[in-house]
C-alpha cells in the first residue's frame, strides 16, 4: 500500500501566519512573516526588537524611543509594561540574605521612618 495516499495536510490548531517588527536592516524597516506556534500572543515584535526597546528605555523617554524606532508611543509603552510584569514575577521569590536597617527623622518633627532594604540590591520591597 502506498503510504503517501494516506497523508493529509495537518493545519495544526495553534499555528498561523504572524508578522513581527524586527531590528531595522540597512536603515529599512524590517518585518518578518512566518508560521510559528510558539510566538507570544499579541506581541507584534521580535524578541531582539523588544530587547532593543527595553535597552533604549533605560536611557531615554518613551516618546524619544518611539520616534527613533518609528513605532507608536502605545506600542513602546506596551513593551515596557510587559517587561516590568515579567521582571516582577521573577523577583517575587528572591528574598535578601542580608538586610540593612536605618531609621531617620523627617519634616523637622519627631516623626521617624524605618527603612529595611536588601544590603546588596538596596531594594525596599514594601512601604507603609
TrEMBL record:
InterPro entries xrefs: Transpos_ISL3 (IPR047951), Transposase_HTH (IPR032877)
Pfam families: HTH_Tnp_ISL3 (PF13542)
Coiled coil: none
Transposase IS204/IS1001/IS1096/IS1165 helix-turn-helix domain sequence ranges: 35-81
PANTHER family: TRANSPOSASE FOR INSERTION SEQUENCE ELEMENT IS1557 (PTHR33498:SF1)
Entry protein name: Transposase family protein
Species in which this protein is naturally found: Pelomicrobium methylotrophicum
Amino acid at each position: 500500500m502506498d503510504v503517501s495516499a494516506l497523508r493529509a495536510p495537518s493545519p495544526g490548531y495553534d499555528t498561523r501566519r504572524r508578522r513581527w517588527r524586527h531590528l531595522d536592516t540597512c536603515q529599512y524597516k524590517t518585518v518578518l512573516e512566518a508560521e510559528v506556534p510558539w510566538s507570544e500572543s499579541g506581541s507584534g515584535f521580535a524578541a531582539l526588537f523588544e530587547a532593543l526597546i527595553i535597552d533604549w528605555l533605560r536611557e531615554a523617554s518613551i516618546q524619544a524611543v518611539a520616534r527613533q524606532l518609528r513605532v507608536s508611543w502605545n506600542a513602546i509603552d506596551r513593551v515596557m509594561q510587559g517587561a516590568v510584569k515579567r521582571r516582577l514575577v521573577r523577583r517575587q521569590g528572591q528574598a535578601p540574605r542580608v538586610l540593612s536597617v536605618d531609621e531617620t527623622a523627617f519634616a523637622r518633627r519627631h516623626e521617624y521612618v524605618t527603612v529595611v532594604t536588601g544590603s546588596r540590591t538596596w531594594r525596599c520591597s514594601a512601604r507603609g
